[in-house]
Amino acid sequence: MFMSISPESLTHHMNHAIAEIQPSDILAFNAEIANIPGIIRLTLGEPDFNTPEHVKQAAIRSIENNESHYAPSNGTPALRQAAANFLATKYDLHYDPANEIIVTAGATEGIYTALTSILNPGDEVLIPTPIFPLYIAVAKVNGAVPVFMDTSADGFVLTPEKLKATLAAHPKTKAVVLNFPSNPTGVTYRAADLKALAAVLADQSIFVLSDEIYSELTYGATHVSIAQYLPNQTILLNGVSKSHAMTGWRIGLMCAPKAITAQLGKIHQFTITSTTTNAQAAAAEALANGLDDGQQMKQKYQARRDYLVAALDQIGFKSAKPEGAFYLFSKIPAGLPQDSMAFCRELAHEARVALIPGSSFGPGGEGYVRISYAASLADLKTAVERMTTYVAAKGLTKE
């Protein structure tokens, strides 16, 4: 064997931006506590329901029909048409399935493709926090600079005043990221909120990357997309992962005006070629014939949310107003460790309940925990019982 340089030394010749990126805190912590006997994990954002039967049968038929070849890069015509109909029916959004919709490998690939397509080194990306950290990592990989807008003092909603002030201070802004209903807070934006943000952005040459993957899990008011108010600037992300309990199928949707989609399609094409053909058949069935599949799941999520908000309030955990998704973002009570990672480790080992540290979600997240209620009501009740015992052992009572 020839003498060769070490793999470790070769890492110094890789994309320099990778050195600034840390592995996901969320996945790392979930793995760290996974082997604690009997632990209840309220950590990952994945529906605990199964994919609807009619959707699974569509995939089976696709396999039996030997639909095992490459699909068109931007997605099968059937799925793009079903997606166009779904978005029009549900949210009054109108995209041409021929050239304004791309089927992605989950919303995750949509985030990567969109940001890679629009960012140049040195561009700035405005990101309201706390937020799912993927947007931050992808921006950095592309040599862009994430600019954080801490929303914790504003009910975890980006205000037009804060957006305007941040834009004034950052003239290199290329894009603004929105995610609503929000991971991790469960907070969402109403029509008036979106109109106010749109008014700030309407005369700016700035993209809006709007991740609305939890749109079908909105409680109370009907979900409204910012694409209604900024159709020419918005790159909209959605999909079937949360609405139809299809996380493992990896089917997302990326929608934008024709001229923008033509450019997005280049990165998409050279990143994944196309998504899995029979998974697209399943997603087409979900969107065409399962418009309201998510509603039964949503009712159960809402019942869990209502139980959890009230039960946790009794032991001092105050939550942001959760109007969507399946998360609570709760303040760690005074008297308990305010370092959220230290608190979550202690809770996992002493109470056998796993939550995600708020610090994983950027500025404004420290001192909070994210609690996923994509778990059975029985598990949630057991988790609350254990947390109640833990809090009592610390000598704390409700204020």
Characterise this structure.
Helix content is 40%, strand content 14%. By secondary structure, it is of the alpha/beta class. It folds into 2 domains: 10-50 and 293-393, Aspartate Aminotransferase, domain 1 (Alpha-Beta Complex); 69-289, Type I PLP-dependent aspartate aminotransferase-like (Major domain) (Aspartate Aminotransferase, domain 2, 3-Layer(aba) Sandwich), CATH 3.40.640.10. The strands form 3 sheets. The protein has a 7-stranded mixed sheet, with helices on both faces. Strands 9-10-13-12 form a 4-stranded antiparallel sheet. Strand 9 (318-319) and strand 10 form a beta hairpin. Helix 3 (53-64) packs antiparallel against helix 10 (277-289), helix 5 runs parallel beside helix 6 and helix 5 (106-118) packs across helix 9 (258-272). The chain starts with 6 loop residues before the first helix and ends in a 6-residue tail after the last helix.
By secondary-structure content and strand pairing, the structural class works out as alpha/beta
Average residue-wise pLDDT: 95
- Span between termini: 70 Å
N-to-C order of helices and strands = HHEHHEHEHEHEHEEEHHHEEHEEEH
- DSSP E strands, number: 13
Q: Count of helical segments?
A: 13
**Count of all domains:** 2
pLDDT under 50 segments (min length 5)?
none
Give the C-level CATH assignment of the largest domain: Alpha Beta
* Strand neighbour order, sheet with most strands: 2-8-7-6-5-3-4
Radius of gyration: 22 Å
Largest sheet entry: 7 strands, mixed
Principal-axis shape:
globular
Proportion of residues in helical segments: 40-55%
The CATH superfamily name of the largest domain is: Type I PLP-dependent aspartate aminotransferase-like (Major domain)
- CATH architectural label of the largest domain: 3-Layer(aba) Sandwich
